[in-house]
Amino acid sequence: MTFQQVYGYEPTVRYSAPGRVNLIGEHTDYNDGYVLPFAIDRRTTASIAQRTDRVLRVASAFDASSVFELGLDELEPSRMSGWSAYVLGIAWALREQAGADLTDKTGFDVFIESDVPVGAGLSSSAAIECGVALAFNDLWELGLSRKQLARVGQYSENHAVGAPTGIMDQSASLLGEQDAVVFLDCRTLDTAVVDLALEANGLEVLVVDTRVEHAHATGGYKARRDSCERGASVMGVEALRDLSVDDLPRAQELLDDETFRRVRHVVTEDQRVLDTVRTLREHGPRSIGSLLVASHASMRDDFEISVPELDLAVETAMAHGAVGARMTGGGFGGAAIALVDQEARQTIADAVTAAFAAAGYREPTVFTVHAAQGARRD
Fold it and tell me: From CA 201, how far away is CA 207, in angstroms rounded?
């Protein structure tokens, strides 16, 4: 299905935005902490044509039977349904969160295509949001910065879609650069681009999509976020970002065991992000493996968001020579990443596939990703 097949004419412009892999820093973003994602060479494309009326129409290659339609004067989350909220919610959030005046704006016909795997923890949702946000910002001449658009995307996902996510995904998709990670302070939104230098070091990032699908709008993610807020409240801080590893003994005294372990993950993960940035700058990517492995153990044991398939992917990759490996994304399914030597890529991919077969799991999808440019007009 194409734009032309749905709407009967050709689009006038195309925008695209990438998915992301989070190198390290999981569930730290909504705790005002630090994250280290990179945009990947898997993208979502929004083909668009401006209308003469005030109607937004949205269709996609992955739901060819449905065309969602909503007037600009009817933009409310209660009127949005399914995946179309990722597009329509952006227009609503531009008005509600960024204060954009849409009273004299005309609508669009929008068609979405993507090769970012859905449900794999590679932020297919933010890729839609960021491509559309950049397009609407340009075409409506709103003049918002990319950092402002990241806020718009997060606001839409929180309030239009109903997923209580942080701002990392949108920041990576909008701010990513070639062969680099984005070091993001989620409190200040200060960013720094840090060279990954994988090619120069003969390394690649292997993604193992377990094909165990997850949904952030459902319970597990929200329960973890509630635990973090409870822990911060008991500890008397605005967010877990304000605690250090030295505060953990006191936290263990004051918190129940489950809440303490949730807090311990976030506090130690923040430190691992800082350590990874320093290590990349001083020693290069071959030296970060132990930090990736420690991150996975923390998510498995303290935050309890891994699943057996993710654990098997990480363990198998490490047993066959990966520099480091960890689950990535929100958890409860999705993908693991492994930092591997280029010449070992196929051996490790085959080993993981064989291990899944031996365990009776669904066959994973294994592929490499490279750090890529963020959202753009194509």
Answer: 18
- Strands 376-377 and 324-328 come out as unpaired
The two three-digit tokens of residue 360, written as one number: 């009776």
Q: Classify strands 108-114 and 55-60 as parallel, antiparallel or unpaired.
A: parallel
- Ranges of beta strands (E only) in the chain are 13-24, 34-50, 55-60, 68-71, 108-114, 180-185, 191-195, 203-209, 324-328, 335-341, 365-369, 376-377
Alpha-carbon Rg for the chain, nearest whole angstrom, is 21
Q: Is the dihedral of CA 279, 330, 177, 344 positive or negative?
A: positive
Summarised one tens digit per residue, pLDDT across range 262-289 is 999 999 999 999 999 999 999 999 999 9
- Of the candidates 46, 38, 37, the residue with the CA atom closest to the CA atom of residue 17: 46
How is residue 357 written in tokens?
């077969």
Which residues lie across from 55 on neighbouring strands? 71
- Average pLDDT over the chain reads 95
Q: Note whether 261 and 269 are within 8 A (CB).
A: no
Using CA atoms, how far apart are residues 24 and 327, in angstroms rounded to an integer?
Answer: 9
Instruction: Answer yes or no: are the C-beta atoms of 35 and 58 closer than 8 Å.
Output: no
- 236 Cβ contact list (under 8 Å, min separation 6): none
DSSP string, 142-154: ----HHHHHHHHH
Which residue bears the tokens 């954009």?
Answer: 100
Distance CA 5, CA 10 (A): 9
Cβ-contact 356, 309 below 8 angstroms: yes
CA–CA separation, 343 and 351 (whole Å): 14
pTM given for the model: 0.88
Which residue in this structure is represented by tokens 């909503």?
Answer: 70
Q: 197 in helix, strand or coil?
A: coil
Catalytic residues: 169
- pLDDT-wise least confident of 42-46, 210-214, 247-251, 357-361: 210-214
Helices (H), 217-307: 219-235, 248-254, 257-283, 289-301
The rounded distance, in Å, linking the Cα atoms of 197 and 95 is 40
146-156 and 168-175 helices cross at what angle (nearest 10)? 140
With beta carbons less than 8 A apart as the criterion, state whether 198 and 205 touch: yes
